[in-house]
Amino acid sequence: MADTKAKEGLLQSLRNWGEHSVPPTLLATLITAQHMRPFQPLPMMFPPVLLFSSYLNLSGYKTDAAGTTAAWSGLYALLAMRRKQQFTQKFTIRGFVRGASLALCAVNVAGCGLAYVFGRREKEDRKE
After folding, report:
1. Which segments cross the bilayer (predicted)?
2. Which of 22, 27, 43, 51 is 20 to 30 A (C-alpha) from 58?
């Protein structure tokens, strides 16, 4: 068991991350925690799409869900990076949640992007 885990590379680990349904749900939770109070309408458009992506993944559309998660995670990262944050605010709970969500966005873009690019659509392959 440990031998197979050691042979698994970084790219395969990222692809496996991108094929799970938990990362978009976790990111939606972090975004909601940041922007629900006070309510900010633009960032709050992201959690429903990410939760729908998790639903797609559980419905068997892993490749499409990975593409949706990668795209919307990247869009949220661009939106969040536009906001400036003072140095003292980085060491608060809110700053930690913001940093965690941006880190999760980066991992989602990499992992879900790999899962989307190298993924196969099983339902389309069966028709041929």
Report:
1. 100-119
2. 43
Contacts of 50 (CB under 8 A, 6+ apart): 24, 25, 27, 28, 31, 69, 72, 73
Assigned domain for 107 exists: yes
Distance in angstroms (rounded) separating the CA atoms of residues 96 and 25: 18
pLDDT value, residue 25: 96
Residue 60, domain extent: 12-123
3-state secondary structure 78-100: HHHHHCCCCHHHHHCHHHHHHHH
Task: Please provide the DSSP assignment of 20-79 as one string.
Answer: -SHHHHHHHHHHHHHHTTTT-TTGGGHHHHHHHHHHHHHTT-HHHHHHHHHHHHHHHHHH
For the stretch 18-71, pLDDT in tens is: 999 999 999 999 999 999 989 999 999 999 999 999 999 999 999 999 999 999
| pLDDT given at position 64 | 94
pLDDT tens track for 25-37: 999 999 999 999 8
